[in-house]
């Protein structure tokens, strides 16, 4: 048997060739202006693409049927997408409003969990003429439930129902346009454990059908749009459309509007702010924030806004893991080498990147101050009492991070 012996062969080959063409074009975006022209970050641009190539057909085909839903982790320590922030986990499941679903799980001890029903994905961002972010993003939150609102048995087990007849507890309604569950969990201390989740359609009584040629052709088209879109949209889409994201030319400072806040953000249960940074080899950047209540996360990202290497490197801080100076100020330091400071943010050798702030328990804006200083004179710009660490302590901190992150992902 050979090409042409089956009637669908020409259509399948054409679809595959089209996908490969989209992938080739996506690779050309690794050299765009927003991708810094240095060896590490050129390689990272292709890594961003290849990591997501690995999940393209998971999203487009393997988990795509809402009648046979699966929960898919679309970011991991080795897969970054969507402006993900270290100390979050991100999962999704394709659903629709025609079915009802049961999520079974056991609560972990992470400080924050949010399960959101996402509605239709418009062609443009509501109220603007900007195109929506690439698939699987751009859809609009319809309703959500926080982990603190999910009632569980004494051992932490629970059931959460999605769609179908209204229920008095542990229920999320759907609409005819509902298309996805978006599940985010955020961690503070290294000892926190993840929530385990599995989903099934209520009434599922037969095996999932095997993909037909038409279904494969559809998946190839979706996957091609996905790889093209992620290389096209990041980071420029966030620069152009998101409040709380500064002008990329105004580097090393957070924007004047810190809130990035609207009704959709309230349903997402967060407030955000974002800074684009650039550091020469002999520079360091001090970021200051008055310590305040709540659960906040600072996370470093690369040029395509994917999180940096949070498995091995100190690229994120939360209240439980941050040293606060005696004057009540949180001071984080970005530098290319370890300055021996507790709150060091490792640039992993990148010349350019992003720093994102999330506040998950309140929507009150924080006030940030930044100072670009010579690396050699860094300590002259910090107050007495700034927390320091020895090389041995840094090694212990890295190992604590490594083990905790692996536990979050079951690695």
Automatic annotation (TrEMBL):
Residue ranges constituting the DUF1214 domain according to the UniProt record: 93-182
Classification via InterPro entries: DUF1214
Record-given protein name: DUF1214 domain-containing protein
Organism: Novosphingobium soli
Pfam families cross-referenced by the UniProt entry: DUF1214 (PF06742)
């Amino acid at each position: 048997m050979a090409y042409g012996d089956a009637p669908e062969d020409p259509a399948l080959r054409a679809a595959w060739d089209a996908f490969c063409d989209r992938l080739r074009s996506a690779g050309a975006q690794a050299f765009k202006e927003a991708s810094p022209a240095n060896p590490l970050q050129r390689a990272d641009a292709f890594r961003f693409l290849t990591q997501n190539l690995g999940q393209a057909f998971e999203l487009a085909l393997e988990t795509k049927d809402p009648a046979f839903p699966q929960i898919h982790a679309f970011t991991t320590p080795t897969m970054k997408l969507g402006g993900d922030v270290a100390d979050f986990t991100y999962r999704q499941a394709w659903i629709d409003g025609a079915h009802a679903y049961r999520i079974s799980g056991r609560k972990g001890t992470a400080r924050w969990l949010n399960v959101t029903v996402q509605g239709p994905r418009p062609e443009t961002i509501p109220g603007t003429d900007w195109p929506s972010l690439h698939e699987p993003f751009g859809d609009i939150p319809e309703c959500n439930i926080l982990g603190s609102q999910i009632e569980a048995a004494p051992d932490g087990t629970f059931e959460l129902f999605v769609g179908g007849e209204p229920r008095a507890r542990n229920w999320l309604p759907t609409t005819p346009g509902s298309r996805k569950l978006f599940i985010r969990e955020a961690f503070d201390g290294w000892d926190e454990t993840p929530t385990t989740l599995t989903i099934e359609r209520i009434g599922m009584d037969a095996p999932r059908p095997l993909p037909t040629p038409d279904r494969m052709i559809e998946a190839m088209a979706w996957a091609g749009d996905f790889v093209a879109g992620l290389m096209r949209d990041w980071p420029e889409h966030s620069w152009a459309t998101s409040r709380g994201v500064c002008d990329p030319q105004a580097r090393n400072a957070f924007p004047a509007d810190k809130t990035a806040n609207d009704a959709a953000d309230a349903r997402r249960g967060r407030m955000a702010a974002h800074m684009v940074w650039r550091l020469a080899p002999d520079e360091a950047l001090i970021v200051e924030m008055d310590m305040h209540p709540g659960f906040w996360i600072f996370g470093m990202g690369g040029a395509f806004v994917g999180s940096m290497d949070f498995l091995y490197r100190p690229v994120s801080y939360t209240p439980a893991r941050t040293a606060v100076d005696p004057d009540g100020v949180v001071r984080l330091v970005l530098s290319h080498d370890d300055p021996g400071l507790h709150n060091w943010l490792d640039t992993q050798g990148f010349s350019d990147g992003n720093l994102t702030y999330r506040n998950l328990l309140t929507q009150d804006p924080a006030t940030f101050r930044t100072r670009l200083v010579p690396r050699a004179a860094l300590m002259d710009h910090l107050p007495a009492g700034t927390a320091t660490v020895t090389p041995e302590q840094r090694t212990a901190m890295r190992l604590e991070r490594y083990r905790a992150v692996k536990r979050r992902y079951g690695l």
